[in-house]
Design a protein that fits this description.
87 residues; alpha+beta; 434 Repressor (Amino-terminal Domain)
Length: 87
């Protein structure tokens, strides 16, 4: 699972969502969705603007946390099988 750590980063810097929206020009609603991890897709330009505004690296904003039950299964011969129905 991909986690967005924007709430943590803003808390560390004592920035509000409104501060970030003003600094980046990104819509406050978009910042809020990122803050609460309600997005399925992320605009790369937004990530770049956020990293620039917060003076941070991308890996301080986004991390991958392995799922307890994998979505991709490996067979004995090394081929891959997707276990999710949407792929």
């Amino acid at each position: 699972m991909i986690r967005i750590l924007l709430s943590t980063k803003l808390g560390e810097l004592r920035w509000t969502q409104a501060d970030l929206a003003r600094a980046t020009g990104i819509r406050p609603n978009t910042i809020n969705e990122l803050y609460h991890e309600l997005v399925d897709r992320v605009n790369l330009e937004h990530l770049d603007l956020i990293c620039e505004a917060l003076d941070c690296k991308l890996d301080e904003l986004i991390v991958r946390v392995p799922d307890e039950s994998p979505k991709v299964l490996h067979t004995k011969n090394g081929s891959l099988i997707s276990s999710s129905s949407d792929r």
